[in-house]
Specification:
With 167 residues, this protein is of the alpha+beta class. It has one domain: tt1808, chain A, CATH 3.90.1570. Helix content is 35%, strand content 19%. It has five helices and six strands; from the N terminus they run αβαββαβββαα. The longest helix is centred in the first third of the chain and has 15 residues.
């Protein structure tokens, strides 16, 4: 059955997020349709489509912003309708993540989903990979902590690949 993006989010993605403890009705952990151009991510001032749609400033809306236990950006979810390949949202999600990183200096994890497939991307360390489900907040926080503890001065994967390509 082909579900449009809104139904995919409500009937599939919201359910899968809830299985991992993400409450899409609780703005302390999940915010829907966040404007990555007009939000202040350092101040944890997240503006949604309802707040910015009618102004003349540039806007880009990430479907889900998943927050850490302190209210800072931890991951984003880019949703597509069930009949679409979720990977078509990769570039779009990357732009949202870049907007967040530009303000915070920290990359966020990326999930791409069409309700049937869930892809996870840790841009600094690994290529996209198909996963069985979303990760819980504590798991993403642990992963972020491990990344920082392993080598806080480590060159990101993207930069490493660019350097190899130039050589």
């Amino acid at each position: 059955m082909d579900l449009n993006e809104l139904r995919t989010r409500k009937e599939k993605i919201d359910v899968y997020l809830a299985e991992q403890g993400w409450d899409v009705t609780n703005r302390a952990s999940v915010i829907l349709e966040v404007d990555t151009k007009q939000s202040d991510f350092l101040a944890h001032s997240y503006k949604t489509v309802a707040e910015t749609l009618k102004n003349d400033l540039e806007s880009k809306y990430v479907d889900y912003l998943l927050l850490d236990s302190l209210g800072a950006p931890l991951a984003i979810v880019e949703a597509k309708r069930t009949s679409k390949d979720p990977l078509i949202g990769q570039k779009q999600a990357e732009q949202y993540a870049d907007d967040i990183k530009q303000q915070t200096g920290r990359d966020v994890f990326i999930f791409l989903s069409n309700g049937y497939e869930i892809w996870f991307w840790d841009r600094e360390r690994y290529p996209l990979r198909l996963v069985k489900g979303f990760y819980a907040q504590k798991d993403l926080e642990r992963l972020r902590f491990q990344i920082q503890k392993i080598d806080p001065h480590r060159r990101p994967l993207k930069e490493h690949r660019e350097r190899q390509a130039r050589a």
